[in-house]
Amino acid sequence: MSKHNHLKIFSLLVGPILFAQTPPTKSAITDTTSAPTSSNASLPTTVAPGPVIARDDLSPEQKEKMKEVDRMRVEKALIDAQLALQEAKRMEEIAPLNAEAMKLSAERSLRLAKASAEASTLEEERTKLERQSALELARSNARLIEKNNKIRELEVDAKQLQLEASNTVTRLTNEINRFQKEDEARKIAANVKPKYLKDPYVDGVLYITDRRISFNGAVTDQLADYISQRINFYNNQSSEFPIFIVVDNSPGGSVSAGYLIQKAMAASKAPVYVVVKGFAASMTAVIATCAEKSFCYPNTIILHHQVSNSVKGNMTVLKEQIEFTKLWFERMATPVAKKMGISLDDFVKKMYENDSTGDWQAFGEKAKELKWIDVVVDRIEETAVLDMLAPVPAPTTMLPKSAQSEYSGIAIKADANGKPYYELPSLSNPFDAWWIYDPHGLYRAR
Q: Any idea what DSSP says for residue 426?
């Protein structure tokens, strides 16, 4: 603000005050009672209320006080003018600062807005990169898992091929050995004949002829076909001498296939005897118990239990399968209970009385006492075994040798962990069931 402007403001503020010091006329003083001026109306007065007294009528002391009051008024007005001038100067001085501050604030807001925009862009870019990285990682993991699964599949296939090749080599080696020794065996056994006896049990010895059928491994349709064909073959040879079904070890198997074996035995004109040397369970135990005559060693184990099923499907299908499984058990186990002289319900009850799992097992003598086996023998003579062949080496799969039969059609396979198992064939009868004892999980349905 210019010097001229400062003087103008000062004159506007101080001028009226100086003018007010001029002694007013009497009429003017008199008029103040009715119309006080705006400048004096707000100021306090030291004069007591009463009639207005002219300044000339005042005492000297009062005049001095009035002068003092006027002087103070002028001084106050001067101070107010000085303060206003200082405030104007201060406002003039801080105006550039305020403008600069406003400018800086605006610039700061602009920079913050730009930084926020840049940060938002960077955050979006970071989020995009993170999504792309996560997606690429997921794809990489998926490819890695796929490759690992493929490697495991190839390893399983390689183990399976190795297992099959090993079994094939073993089988071919055994066949070669058999062919090589066959002539020698014939020469040695030229003067030996099987003992064909109508009653093969003589003086505590059971004589088995070449009219024998090997029954080992799980009961399947293929094994049932083989046994039925052999029974027919021996019947066509002679219906006079007995046929022997020899069981080394069999955990049971298909109910339907076992039933076909039973019907083939019942239809045979020649008597069919079952000989259990090691172990017979489930469906095989039923076949042995219901045979026309059965034999076993004292330490042979016979095991009976309820039939089980691993069905799949909706509730209606499950219910139907369970009902058919129950009917199978009633039809196949009732003859066993009848031979024992008890009801089917008592038979089932005794299964669980003897073993909490319901797997009722017994050695030869106890099996005879329970009427599961007819005759316990200490000695069996295989009069038809004349080839002198070396015993077959145990399989490299660490599975029990006796659990596999070349006639049952069961394949030896390995799971993803390389553990070998026997793969049961699919049941051709949709209402069939597996009646098999397999506590170690060696058999798995296809």
A: P
Torsion angle of the four alpha carbons 223, 227, 233, 234, in this order, in degrees rounded to the nearest 10: 150
Output the CA–CA distances (angstroms, integers) from residue 211 to 19, 234, 352, 377, in the order listed: 159, 7, 38, 19
How much is the pTM?
0.56
d(C-alpha 255, C-alpha 248), whole Å: 19
Region at 362 (left for phi over 0; alpha for psi -120 to 50; beta for the rest): beta
The tens digit of pLDDT for each residue in 20-64 reads 444 444 444 344 444 444 444 444 445 555 566 677 778 888 888
Domain residue limits, the chain: 165-445
266 or 41, which is more confident: 266
Q: Of 282, 294, 405, 408, which residue is the catalytic one?
A: 282
Give the C-alpha separation, 402 to 229, whole Å.
Answer: 22
Tokens 């840049």 -> residue: 118
Strand partners, 381: 207
- What lies within 8 Å, CB to CB, of 345 at 6+ separation is none
In the sheet with 201-202, reading across from the earlier edge strand, the strands are 201-202, 205-208, 379-382
Cα torsion angle, 329, 335, 340, 341, sign: positive
Q: What is the DSSP string of 156-201?
A: HHHHHHHHHHHHHHHHHHHHHHHHHHHHHHHHHTTT------SS-E
| The one catalytic residue among 294, 305, 405, 408 | 305
Question: In the CATH scheme, what is the homologous superfamily, with its name and number, of domain 165-445?
Answer: 2-enoyl-CoA Hydratase; Chain A, domain 1 (3.90.226.10)
Instruction: Report the C-alpha gap between 242 and 229 in whole angstroms.
Output: 16
Q: What is the pLDDT of residues 379-395, one digit of tens each?
A: 999 987 654 444 444 33
Q: Is 6 known to be catalytic? A: no
Q: Which residue has the tokens 């026997």?
A: 422
Of the candidates 59, 381, 375, 364, the one whose C-alpha atom is nearest the C-alpha of residue 207 is 381
